[in-house]
Amino acid sequence: MVEMIFISPFLFFLLFSLVPGDAISSNVTLLTLGDLWDTRGMTRTHLFPTKTSTVYPEFAAIPSNQGDGRMHLTRSALDKAIENVAEMNGVLIHSICSYRHLNVTFYTLNTMFGIGRSEVLIDANMTEMEKKMSEMTDRRIKVNFICVGANNDTYSAVWHHSPDFVWHFIVDSGPIREIIEKDRLQMTRGYYADCFQTYRNDNVSRAIIIWRKGFGKKYRIQYGTEVQEMLTDMQRTDLEPVQFASLPRLTQRKPFPRWILWHGDEFTWGNRTIPRDLSKMNHNWEALNSVIEHRMRSYDIPSISIHILRDNKMEYSASYGFADILQNIPVKTTHRYRIASVSKLITAMTIGELLADYEHIDLLTPVFGRNGILSDVCSPCHPFLLHVRIIHLLEHSSGAWPHTSKFEFDRMEQNQTEFLMRVVQKEFPILFPGGRHMYSNIGYILLGRIIEKVSGRSYEEYAMEKVLKPLGVNATIGKEGDPSEEVTYYSHDNANAYTSWSTRRLNSAAGWAMTAEDVTKVFHHLEEHKLRRFRWIITPSAVRWNYGRGVQLGNDGSLYHIGSLAGTEAIGYTWQNVQVAILTNIRGREQNEQTGWMEKLCRSIADGRFTR
Ligand SMILES: *[C@@H]1O[C@H](CO)[C@@H](O)[C@H](O)[C@H]1NC(C)=O
Ligand SMILES: *[C@@H]1O[C@H](CO)[C@@H](O)[C@H](O)[C@H]1NC(C)=O
Ligand SMILES: *[C@@H]1O[C@H](CO)[C@@H](O)[C@H](O)[C@H]1NC(C)=O
Ligand SMILES: *[C@@H]1O[C@H](CO)[C@@H](O)[C@H](O)[C@H]1NC(C)=O
Ligand SMILES: *[C@@H]1O[C@H](CO)[C@@H](O)[C@H](O)[C@H]1NC(C)=O
Ligand SMILES: *[C@@H]1O[C@H](CO)[C@@H](O)[C@H](O)[C@H]1NC(C)=O
Ligand SMILES: *[C@@H]1O[C@H](CO)[C@@H](O)[C@H](O)[C@H]1NC(C)=O
Ligand SMILES: *[C@@H]1O[C@H](CO)[C@@H](O)[C@H](O)[C@H]1NC(C)=O
């Protein structure tokens, strides 16, 4: 029996290379073993067992320009086919699933084009699977597909050693309903389902899923019982079927449950029209429009918001693109954006208000130790820390916790108090305070705690009341979720805007979300008071000529701050009578990919290049 169905994988490939590929169309066809018997597979088609019968196996055939599908491989034929793929250049294994036929386990194998090497684990139990999974994740090798075996509690998985950038991914399994619920959340966080397979265990219908980090990639996990109806429902969409999953029926009377995974394209502007909200425009500023649209197309920036004040009057206000790509929500000038480190100026201004309100503290008040404001954060403290004063935190010269150490980006589920206690007690300073500029988010998180400790209010409340509300600014921290008010964040790289950092943890360092107009109000306030109330803010620190306290100092007299964290690049800028804010809902492939041109653009605007 086993010998009879064995077919040399080599012969198999020869057979295939002679068959011309069909035109790819949006289609899923159910084919029986008999339909496929002669070729034992199809070119440019992926095959998935439908688990509808252990006597008459059936396969869902999905046209694929990625590669070929094969079926009815015994375990030894599968091993040979895997070896065969390993010897071919530019071909990887896409997926392996199994099914039972007449009490024997058989396998389907799909290939795909790609550079690198595939590694597989077949019919492993959960323990082995988890071990391998964490080993591969440590080696930064990405899992491509997981299928649950025909035999209960066995898994077959495929990994790709590939020179491509390793995109962030999440693997999960559980009852189908729970997985679908989690999927909605992951979708809003910029992940898409790239593998969705189902199985039944202990009479519970479960799914195993791999989400991959996308950039506004559209997809859908569609449930149904009749394939033809499912296809009809999707006819008007621009999605293509890529995968099929199914379950045996629970009782004779119930139909077979089936799922089709559909994918669309990743987001790109190409030469599509970029929507604009120019409602408040009062000049013909086509030159500036074209600069911004050019940047958006070159970097595939989903949206940009820009606001310009001249002589405290709105000169230009525009938002371009989509607040949310998947839902096609055009951005409005009233949308809030996270401003990342531009928040540091707000914290510095709030410290200014705090010192005015509470005369027993000043910029030289110690932070730690028995006489420090945050005496409870460490005890005993590292001896260097006893010399840290408020001003050191403001000018990034505490000598500890540089942002390059990334302590603030760990994934530990700790609230801010627990997080600070751990970092301050365990991560020792590098230098004596006041010695050198080492940009530190944690320094600014501590400033927020100082504000809370002294005022007895939350940082957000106190900053709103003392600084932002009087300016007519309505800002929030950690309220994202409503795409009609705040934009959705994207990121080209591995870092996820929603999971790689937390606006709540980084509240006083990088947490604020506000409109571009509101950012210009904050910078106008700075400009207005820079010679008196905020003189200390714009005074170069003792250790850095181009950084004051919460503000960057341009050599032409401009004052600005840039922000660049996963999901966001932003700038707030002032030069004499001109204030500019430029905000985006994406970070480039590298930190500060966008802020360079943003700063230059601010200078040109201040110079009057676009008004002449
Ligand atoms: C799907 O494929 C089947 C078989 O190849 C074909 O009969 C049918 O017309 C196709 N449907 C669509 C919508 O392309
Ligand atoms: C299926 O195979 C198992 C052993 O692999 C055997 O115990 C069982 O009797 C077989 N069942 C049938 C229906 O052949
Ligand atoms: C999984 O497989 C390994 C090796 O085959 C075995 O040692 C282990 O007991 C199995 N674990 C379970 C939970 O079946
Ligand atoms: C798999 O588990 C189901 C119950 O969850 C059981 O009825 C079935 O016999 C098992 N199959 C195998 C091959 O162990
Ligand atoms: C599994 O669930 C179905 C439907 O809920 C039920 O009819 C059946 O009795 C259950 N089987 C077992 C073994 O629990
Ligand atoms: C640009 O638009 C034209 C039609 O307006 C279209 O034919 C072409 O494919 C588009 N190119 C890109 C890269 O989207
Ligand atoms: C943070 O966690 C600690 C310990 O679990 C708890 O005592 C404290 O109340 C928490 N703080 C906040 C603000 O939730
Ligand atoms: C500020 O924004 C919040 C959230 O969008 C809104 O509920 C509130 O009404 C706004 N407050 C003012 C004063 O505009």
Features:
alpha+beta, binds 2-acetamido-2-deoxy-beta-D-glucopyranose, disordered N terminus, 16 helices, four-stranded antiparallel β-sheet, Beta-lactam/transpept-like, eight-stranded antiparallel β-sheet, AmpC-like, 27% helix, 612 residues, 29 strands, signal, Beta-lactamase-related domain-containing protein, elongated, Beta-lactamase
Alpha-beta classification: alpha+beta
Judging by the overall fold, what is the CATH architecture of the domain at 276-579 and 587-607? 3-Layer(aba) Sandwich
Give the biggest sheet: 8 strands, antiparallel
Mean pLDDT: 91
Tell me the number of helical segments per DSSP (H or I, 4 or more residues long): 16
Protein name: Beta-lactamase-related domain-containing protein
Keywords: Signal
Domain Beta-lactamase-related: 289-598
InterPro entries: AmpC-like (IPR050491), Beta-lactam-related (IPR001466), Beta-lactam/transpept-like (IPR012338)
Give the secondary structure arrangement, pairings included.
Layout: H1 9-18, E1 29-32, H2 33-36, E2 41-42, E3 45-49, E4 58-63, E5 69-73, H3 75-87, E6 91-101, E7 104-113, E8 117-124, H4 126-138, E9 142-148, E10 155-161, E11 169-175, H5 176-188, E12 191-201, E13 204-213, E14 219-224, H6 227-233, E15 240-246, E16 258-263, E17 276-277, H7 286-299, E18 303-310, E19 313-324, E20 329-330, E21 337-338, H8 343-357, H9 390-394, H10 416-426, H11 441-455, H12 459-468, E22 476-477, E23 490-491, H13 507-510, E24 512-514, H14 516-529, H15 535-538, E25 552-553, E26 559-565, E27 568-575, E28 578-584, E29 586-587, H16 595-607
Parallel strand pairs: 23-29
Antiparallel strand pairs: 1-4, 2-5, 3-4, 5-7, 6-7, 8-10, 9-10, 11-13, 12-13, 14-16, 15-16, 17-19, 18-19, 18-28, 19-20, 21-24, 22-24, 25-26, 26-27, 27-28
One 2-acetamido-2-deoxy-beta-D-glucopyranose binds at residues 203, 250-251.
